[in-house]
Amino acid sequence: MQKIEVPVLIIGGGGCGLASSLFLSRQGIRSLLVERHPAPGRLPKARYISQRTMELLRQFDAADAVYAKSMPLAHISHIRWCTTLAGDGELDRRTFYRIESFGGGSLTHYARDSPCESTLFPQVRMEPLLRDMASAQDEAQVLYNHQLVSFEQDESGIAAVVQERDTEKLIHVRARYMIGADGGKTVGPALGAKIEGQTDLAHMVTVYFRADLSQYWDDDYSMTTWFVNPQGGSWASGVLGQLGPTRFGRHSEEWMFHFSFRPDDPSRFEEASLLPRMRELLKIPDLTPDIIGIGHWTVEGVLVDRYRWGRVLLAGDAAHRHPPTTGLGLNSAIQDAHNLAWKLAAVIKGQAHDSLLDSYEAERRPVAASNIQWALMTFQNHQLTDAGIGLVRGNPEASFANFRRYFADNQEGRTRRARLAQIMEVQRMEWQAHDIELGYHYDVGAVMPDGTPTPGRDPLGQTYVPTTRPGHRLPHAWVERDGKMISTLDLVRPGTFLLIVGRNKSNWTEAAAEVAHASGVTIDVVEISEAGQVRDTDSTWRNLREVSSDGAILVRPDQHVGWRSVGAHAKPPQVLATALGRILQRDLINAS
């Protein structure tokens, strides 16, 4: 039996597992990834990549590769609700409403708050890219067509048996830690993990196909079109989304069509009926698409009871699963990987105590719980949209009459359109969830709180308030270094702490050098000021930092603030050592 010894064993080669492999290897940590399928998935699955996720990929030099192949922001700048795509009937090819989305159009505050744009890059293409990037690292080994057979853990690590599926050859793997990123299929059940929440909300069927829709598609900037007709609501009627990959808008080569069914509807498995249904809904009777694949999936909002089980840590869909609304699933999974990777790296390198890994659950599980509830609410919001449009379920005649009244050029029509516009103010929760994407933070975990209250958050999730309060993402500001404009987020190197100061000659610089030497932890010190090594050219950072020029901000390797001092301290080395020790779960006072 072949034997492999590695610090981290990763089970599952989806977005979360592959991101974990990449993030670990770029911090010098070897890993073995095992994926039971022979190749990355063949269905689009998730496709929206948020600004925050792009920031994480940017930190690991992967963002440019994604942007080079993904759909530009302009082509995902709004969402629309329509009757049909073609046809010449009275209510054919009519648009009920358009709403701006994901930082496109007039949503310019997205660009103010991040160096990255949102983008569209379906998982069917994201996974091969991450696989290639991870496999290129000397520290990463990726094995497809292999499956986990069994595992046991003891005080020092994991003993696992992995099988190559074609030859049935067994591999004995010894690892210090294991990440379960397999969607909850094997690792969680073996541990006894319990999944809690709402299940079987709907059964979805996705048709992934190629077709030339350019003569019918009249909107180059709509990421998704929801179809609403008298026979069904927007989910039941169908959802059409463009996928690129090399041309966008009306010239997109690939598309995905979602259909919703009741979980007990036997017709959900009648795949032969899907193409006739697509033709009828789109009003394109001669549509002959090249169907690439058909996928079945269940809408649910569930959360695992525990993230950490000794030396096994659950992440991504193995820990939480969301309704697709707001696009939080894959983004949350990659953010799990990012949070966990720097902590595993610190523990494996001896920079942190093993108990630092407890903070992974303490930090990420509340975020997942919040995201699940948000996605459930926005999923339910579509009932409001259907009602505002005038859909009467089970009564096509009444629905048709309401649609005619909606589009009528009279006072009632104007009133109905105005009513829908008011309802769509609520629907913005799904498409403009800027604070949900950037404003998540950690009140407990690997942070040293400073006693300040959490800034008020927008209950509709739209307005993001940047802050340097411990636990929050470091605010973005454009600053100048060596004649080049960079983001404050770019100052945080993978696996490295950052201390931001306002005066280079302050005692914080000497304190950081002393603490770094005593602890073995690398701490980059950067002065951001009008005339410093990093120049605050327009005072944006000064207005965001929330500390004086004599203060300091300690940023964790994942770009979240771990601690801050509003002003100077009499004993900077002790204060900084206490803060870093609190984060890493080590006693650095005695070590220094």
Kindly describe this structure.
Among the domains are: 2-65 and 122-195 and 301-374, 3-Layer(bba) Sandwich (FAD/NAD(P)-binding domain); 379-438, no CATH class; 478-591, Glutaredoxin (3-Layer(aba) Sandwich). A hairpin with a 4-residue loop joins strand 8 and strand 9. With 592 residues, it is an alpha/beta fold. It starts with a strand and ends with a helix. The protein is built from 17 helices and 25 strands. The longest helix is centred in the middle third of the chain and has 32 residues, at 358-389. The strands form 4 sheets. Strands 1, 2, 7, 8, 9, 10, 16 and 17 form an 8-stranded mixed sheet that branches.
Overall CATH architecture of the domain at 2-65 and 122-195 and 301-374: 3-Layer(bba) Sandwich
- Ranges where pLDDT stays below 50 over 5 or more residues in a row are none
CATH classification, class level of the domain at 2-65 and 122-195 and 301-374: Alpha Beta
Task: Tell me the overall shape.
Answer: globular
Primary descriptors:
single chain, 592 residues, alpha/beta, FAD/NAD(P)-binding domain, Glutaredoxin, eight-stranded mixed sheet, 25% strand
The gist of it:
The protein is an alpha/beta fold.
How are the SSEs ordered, and which strands pair?
Blueprint: E1 2-11, H1 15-25, E2 31-35, E3 48-49, H2 51-59, H3 63-69, E4 78-82, E5 95-100, H4 109-113, E6 119-120, H5 123-135, E7 140-144, E8 146-153, E9 158-164, E10 170-180, H6 187-191, E11 195-210, E12 222-227, H7 234-237, E13 239-244, E14 254-261, H8 274-282, E15 290-304, E16 308-309, E17 312-314, E18 320-321, H9 329-348, H10 358-389, H11 396-407, H12 411-431, H13 434-438, E19 478-481, E20 484-487, E21 497-501, H14 507-519, E22 523-529, E23 534-535, H15 540-544, E24 552-555, E25 561-565, H16 572-584, H17 588-591
Parallel strand pairs: 1-2, 1-10, 2-7, 4-12, 10-17, 21-22, 22-23
Antiparallel strand pairs: 3-6, 4-5, 8-9, 9-10, 11-14, 11-15, 12-13, 13-14, 15-18, 16-17, 19-20, 19-23, 21-24, 24-25
